[in-house]
């Protein structure tokens, strides 16, 4: 999806503090905004649709006639934004915006892109306009991506969240599928089926991925011997660890370290 904005103004980024509340607007005509609320509460009204955005959340808004943003009275409100006044809005883009999740938690990716945009507010040359356009489009794409993740998380059963968190926090321990299933009061068959449905892999394969990724980090960023790294990551012996590292990353632990020493290390993750 691409938002076509006025080529003279393009996307703009901003940040403001409303010490005791306030109002931004009314704005008429086509208006697209991604609003990040860092402190306080915002009430966004776009063409009659009201959305409340709390601190730590961001919202994506489309106004085609009238948009108003109100900030909680008597309270300090700190917000950041990326906004655009589309010269024309293709039907497909308008539909995507209307159907978008109205608000999600502010992610590190979204906050970083918005702050990069803030750093361009002083420029007025052609290159700055291009950068603002690219960042604006990227920020909207990031929002849609994060919204999809939030939607998947919302539909993931609590038991699967617990299982994943337990594996991530206890990967160095000796774990079995039966132990995990018992902890969650599920049958092993149901656990495997539900975990694969919502996470994309089985619990055992997810555990292998965690151990391999952690092992790789220790290989690249510590001087620990391979035997100790294997033990710290939950492997029974160095041979099993080496086999898993080669399976996930295409090279042995020694080769991984040698590659990093020559400054050509990449950052793949086990999948």
What features would you describe in this structure?
With 271 residues, the protein is α+β, with helices and mostly antiparallel strands. The protein has two domains: 4-153, Regulatory protein AraC (Jelly Rolls); 158-261, Arc Repressor Mutant, subunit A, CATH 1.10.10.60. The protein is built from ten helices and eleven strands. It has helices at residues 91-99, 108-118, 126-154, 158-169, 177-184, 188-199, 203-221, 226-232, 238-249, 253-261; strands at 4-5, 12-18, 22-28, 31-39, 41-46, 49-54, 57-63, 66-71, 77-84, 86-88, 103-105. Strand 5 and strand 6 form a beta hairpin. The model has no long low-confidence stretch (mean pLDDT 86).
């Amino acid at each position: 999806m691409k938002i076509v904005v006025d080529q003279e103004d393009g996307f703009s980024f901003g940040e403001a503090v409303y010490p005791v509340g306030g109002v931004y607007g009314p704005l008429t005509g086509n208006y697209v905004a991604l609003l990040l609320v860092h402190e306080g509460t915002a009430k966004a009204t776009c063409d009659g649709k009201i959305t409340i955005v709390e601190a730590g959340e961001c919202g994506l808004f489309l106004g085609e006639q009238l948009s108003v943003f109100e900030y909680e009275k008597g309270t300090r409100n700190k917000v950041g934004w990326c906004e655009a006044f589309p010269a024309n809005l293709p039907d497909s883009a308008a539909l995507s915006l209307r159907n978008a999740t109205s608000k999600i938690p502010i992610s590190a990716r979204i906050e970083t892109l918005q702050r990069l945009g803030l750093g361009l507010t002083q420029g007025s040359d052609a290159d700055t306009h291009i950068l603002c356009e690219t960042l604006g489009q990227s920020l909207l794409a990031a929002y849609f991506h994060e919204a999809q993740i939030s939607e998947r998380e919302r539909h993931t059963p609590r038991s699967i969240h617990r299982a994943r968190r337990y594996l991530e926090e206890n990967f160095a321990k000796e774990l079995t599928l039966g132990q995990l299933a018992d902890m969650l009061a599920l049958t092993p068959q149901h656990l495997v089926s539900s975990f694969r449905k919502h996470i994309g892999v089985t619990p055992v394969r997810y555990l292998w991925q965690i151990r391999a990724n952690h092992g790789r980090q220790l290989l690249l960023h510590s001087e620990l011997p391979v035997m100790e790294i294997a033990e710290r990551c939950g492997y029974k012996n160095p041979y099993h660890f080496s086999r898993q590292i080669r399976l996930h990353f295409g090279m042995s632990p020694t080769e991984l370290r040698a590659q990093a020493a020559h400054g050509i290390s990449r950052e793949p993750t086990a999948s």
